[in-house]
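# nightly structure sweep
# worker-07 picked up a monomer target from the shared queue
# config: single-sequence mode, recycle default, output format = structure tokens
# input follows
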Amino acid sequence: MTLRHSLLAVLTLGPAYGYQLHGEVVERTRRDTPLNVGQVYSTLDRLRRDGLIASAGITDDNLPLYELTDSGIIEARMHLTEPDTPDWHDMVERVLLALSLPGSHHDALIAHYRRLWEPYAGASSETLDPTGGQAQAAAEHAARLLRSAALAWLDSLPVIEPWPLRTDRRRRGRRAAEAVQPPR
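# output follows
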């Protein structure tokens, strides 16, 4: 799932500042790769340039707030209901994000993913396979297992209560190192 769409989806909850959006995306999607806060700010700049977000004022301590424009609302809703490819990582992050947000958009998203993962006719066998068909058979087997796992995961989703934006200030930086006592 793109960071662009994750930020738009979280902003459906209301105005937020950059570091707050960073924490919300990480918490709601349970990303399997680290998210650099600099990526968040550069993506917010592009979203503003593209007319999908606008300034929503500042916090009490002068942090800029962002909110969705009408175009941003439309793009966020489309992202939360209409996946375009059956990609495992995208599906997991997008479904977890959708489940964490209020509304019934997750039902449409899950239904679309089910259709994307339904069995389909395999890849063309016109390509010469120097392994005598073993590589093609192994690839088709992997695709069947992935489809089966995706559909099983969609069938076993827990009920997750949506939650609002966190308003507590997230701590930044590294934790203070414990004092090391010199040897005696």
